[in-house]
Amino acid sequence: MRLDHLSYAAGPDGLISTAKRLGDLLGQDFVDGGVHPRFGTRNMTLPLRGGIYLEVVEALDHPASDKAPFGQAVKTRSALGGGWMGWVVSVEDMAPVEERLGRPWVDGNRHLPDGTELLWKQIGINGLIADPQLPYFIHWLTPELHPGNAGSDVTLTCIEISGEKQRVKDYLADEFKERTDPYTGRPAEDVAMRWVAEHGTPGLLAAQFTTPNGDVRI
């Protein structure tokens, strides 16, 4: 289990403008990630060092965005002005997660502008909607096309989460490891996880980055 990516919902200025604003802060351009036909959303992505990536995601005016939990989550966050929607961990085997959560994974796919199709399984969006401090899980069926493979000069150093660390540890079960255990499969790799228990609303509050132009907190 490892940190796979962070999701940021587009604000009132829309997908392209939101991605440009964040890209300007980080000194790197997002690229068009294409459309999620099953979810009624589209995204733009930015690779980070270590095989992690950021996505800015926007709900389309399409029935799928009203029916699919992922589309609903994006719409809800965008309606609040946009911002961090959640964090995602990748797993090698989805079966234990299915058993623990008591529901099946769903298929995910995304078509790049050139027609290339990315495929994965995911589970846990309903958990994210109910309790935004929780991550959701992904298993890539096309790992060679992972957006984090492109390489980057930008490093994610810390994610700040409002909530209860024990709640998240229980949700991730025995696979969760603290950063201080550097040789096992902790979900955040070398990314620190800072818990802000006193904040009133649970969820991903901020992310910190090291860039060629200095440190950035979003």
For this entry, give a set of tags.
218 residues; alpha+beta; 2,3-Dihydroxybiphenyl 1,2-Dioxygenase, domain 1; 2 domains; eight-stranded mixed beta sheet; four-stranded mixed beta sheet; 6 helices
Q: Could you describe the 3D structure shown?
A:
With 218 residues, this protein is α+β, with helices and mostly antiparallel strands. The protein folds into two domains: 2-149, 2,3-Dihydroxybiphenyl 1,2-Dioxygenase, domain 1; 155-217, no CATH class. 23% of the residues lie in helices and 37% in strands. It has six helices and twelve strands. The protein has helices spanning 14-26, 63-67, 69-79, 95-101, 125-130, 165-172, and strands spanning 2-9, 31-36, 41-48, 52-59, 83-90, 106-111, 117-123, 136-140, 155-162, 192-195, 203-211, 214-217. The strands form two sheets. It has an eight-stranded mixed sheet. A four-stranded mixed sheet has the order 10-9-11-12, with no helix packed on it. The protein is globular. The chain starts with a strand and ends with a strand.
